[in-house]
């Protein structure tokens, strides 16, 4: 779950079947285990982030069926992603976390779906999981606190995402 910085994108033929590129947002990588009445937000190192993000937990509890999402927890402020605000939110619990959720709402930028309606999707190819994820956004199942991570198979688009203007709004790079 930890991205490794590189100076350039891999060549087009680096993987059989081609490459897909996604924006890397400035946030916390997290898994969300969700479903009716349940929510658990887990950091990449296994920490329970749920108490710090009651807004994300509430959105997760409203999802139909058991769902596991992989994404980046972010907070936006002033037209950009605000990592300092995210860190501040992550330290709060209880009433402080609820107040922070109103002042600086969090979103989960989702780039993969690992389970849907209790069915594991781990053996499905990326393009199939991505199609499922896009469909959930198109049908409004995932909305509100959830955002679909921009993705492309076009190398030129991915290269454009490396421009300094994207960095200025909180996009750290490309995965």
TrEMBL record:
Sorted UniProt keywords: Ligase
ATP-dependent DNA ligase family profile domain: residues covered: 16-163
InterPro entries: ATP-dep_DNA_ligase, DNA_ligase_ATP-dep_cent
Assigned protein family: Belongs to the ATP-dependent DNA ligase family.
Name of the featured protein: ATP-dependent DNA ligase family profile domain-containing protein
